[in-house]
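Each record in this resource describes a single protein on a pair of labelled lines. With that in mind, the following record should read easily:

===
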Amino acid sequence: MRYCVFSGSSTGVRAEYAEAARGLGQLFVREGIGLVYGGASVGLMGAISDAVIDAGGEAIGVIPRDLVEKELASTRLRDLRVTSSMHERKAMMAELSDGFIALPGGIGTFEEMFEIWTWAQLGYHAKPIGMLNVAGFYDGLAAFLDRVVDEGFLREKQRGMMLCESEAEKLLEGMKNYVAPRADKWIGLKSAT
């Protein structure tokens, strides 16, 4: 089993972010979960991949050719896959993975997380997706997503596709027990709930 982790090429301003990335990587190895990630050696990407590699686990990096130097591709990886585009990168990461976790990050992390969630909503995959809510990083986003439901733009069952936990162990447990809802037609429905 492998989980794809979306995360920042920065470590952010809080030490807890890198600590959580390292802790998640170590947990992956203890649980026999391989890592698929963006292939960089810096930021939270580097923190989680180094933790997995240091603990003897599997780490697969996937990075577009034009980002190899910008994101400083990891030289520690035994398996670094270089793609021709971001689209190819995301498709390959999805294909290689049995689930997806977003650590704190910026717009790239959000874009990857929302795209994979959209694919789930459309029924393109039934894999679990979760946010590791380190130091309350995703509190505001989780509240906004609840408002999207309240405003009729997202159905409750689709909102439930995005798991959110502050503890990595709880998140992995939720992902292990995840059952995807059936992808129904929603266009033209009077209510999104």
Remarks:
- The first helix runs from residue 15 to 31.
- The mean pLDDT is 94.
